Amino acid sequence: MSASRSDLRENLMLALDTLRTHKFRSLLTILGVLIGTFIVIIVASIIAGLNLQMMEAINQFGARNMYVYKFEPGIHFRLTREERMRKPLSYDDAVAIREQCPDVETVAVEIWQWGPSPPMKYKDKEMLNGNFGGATPEDFRIINAPLADGRFFNEIDDLHRRNVTVIGADVVTRFFDNEDPIGKTILIDGNPFEVIGTLGKRKEFLGDSGNDRIAYIPYNTYKKIYPAAKENFIIAEALPGKMDQALDEVKGVLRRMRHVKPDQPDNFGIATADSIITQFHQITGTIALVMVVLSSIGLLVGGIGVMNIMLVSVTERTREIGVRKAIGARRSDITWQFLLEATTLTVLGGVMGMLLGGVGSLLIRALVPSLPSTVPLWSVVLGFTVSVGIGVFFGMWPALKAARLDPIVALRYE
């Protein structure tokens, strides 16, 4: 099947003229394609934005870091008995990793308590949604903490259990909007702490994760105030290019330290940048699959609508087809005419869906800054390609039916 450029132009003009003649019918026909393409663009833009934000967050905190937890990282709907009875990670575990893992460059430990964080106060101001934890001095370097002013606490502060703190950007804004926080004393759970450093703003993933509402104190200071606290969180940084070796070493040390038998699974969890990204892609992949199914329903409905409308159009224009054939139109001319008409319908619906999707993406970014949506080029190409494909697939039968009409029978059609 072939058609010259002039024939294609003429058939395209005929198709557009038909669409102008039946505006409302054409709009209803392309509605399914419009909705399906719109969903594809919106979902693709949100996922692309989240992927970008995830990569920025991973790079911000360190691509060579290993995060060691008491449980396997991820969503836990129900803990097993073994998980409920599992002992917390200990400071000795971190020391063993530091001493016995040659491919680990740095190890840091954080300590927290379950439940809501204690209130923070400064003069007559109070913060109830802050985060409060102890950390070893290495923690700031290993998580790439951005120092805005002052200094981080050091080994001397930790050894002597000094009541000093480094606070996040939101804590600074809440308490010290018009004054220098360095040297001031804030109360955390009724205990006085001197502010020796402040952190800069950190990029958040999926909204406010509390990184800027943090108050860090030395690890041993925390243990002095809360001697019963046992929930340790270990971060180990691998040497450049040694992530796999370091991961194996850390697992081996922890299995020995936590007395895990060779035939038993790990009683701890380790997350790396790659594992976090993989898990995130699995979640977004599932969401994308659901959205693709929903959009496919819209596209299928739109395609069936196009086919039905084109069949009606063939019936309505039977006499016109007969006249065209009588004056020399070939089967291919008739086929291209109706095929282009169907494709024009679906492409128009696809373009409208893509435009609405682009506007929707901008609105999401403006209304929900924590959900950075961006329209990837591949989604636009996919939307256009699918629109053309639907027009060709669902328009082929009506086009061939029109092309096969007998011109004598068609001329007699009333």
Provide an overview of this structure.
By secondary structure, this protein is an alpha+beta fold. It folds into two domains: 5-57 and 279-412, no CATH class; 64-271, no CATH class. The chain is 56% helix and 15% strand. The protein contains 14 helices and twelve strands. Strands 1, 2, 3, 4, 5, 6, 7, 8, 9, 10, 11 and 12 form a twelve-stranded mixed beta sheet that branches. 35% of the residues are buried. The model has no long low-confidence stretch (mean pLDDT 82).
Task: Give the helix/strand layout.
Elements lengths: L4 H17 L1 H39 L3 E5 L11 H4 L6 H10 L3 E9 L7 E3 L2 E3 L3 E5 L2 H5 L4 E4 L4 H5 L4 E4 L1 H7 L9 E4 L2 E9 L14 E5 H7 L5 E8 L4 H15 L11 E4 H44 L1 H9 L4 H37 L9 H27 L3 H6 L2
Parallel strand pairs: 5-10, 7-9
Antiparallel strand pairs: 1-11, 1-12, 2-5, 2-11, 3-4, 3-8, 6-9, 7-10, 8-9
Helix pairs in contact: 1-12, 2-10, 2-12, 2-13, 4-9, 10-12, 10-13, 12-13
Note the main attributes of this structure:
elongated; 12 strands; twelve-stranded mixed beta sheet; 414 residues; 15% strand; alpha+beta; 2 domains; single chain
Structural class estimated from helices and strands? alpha+beta
**What distance lies between the first and last C-alpha atoms, to the nearest angstrom?**
30 Å
The helix fraction, in percent, is 55-70%
- Sheet with the most strands? 12 strands, mixed
- SSE string: HHEHHEEEEHEHEHEEEHEHEHHHHH
Number of helices: 14
Q: Which strand-content bin applies to the residues? A: 15-25%
Overall average pLDDT? 82
The coarse silhouette is elongated
Integer-rounded radius of gyration: 32 Å
Number of domains: 2
Tell how many strands the DSSP assignment holds.
Answer: 12
What oligomeric state best describes the polypeptide chains here? single chain
Low-confidence stretches: none
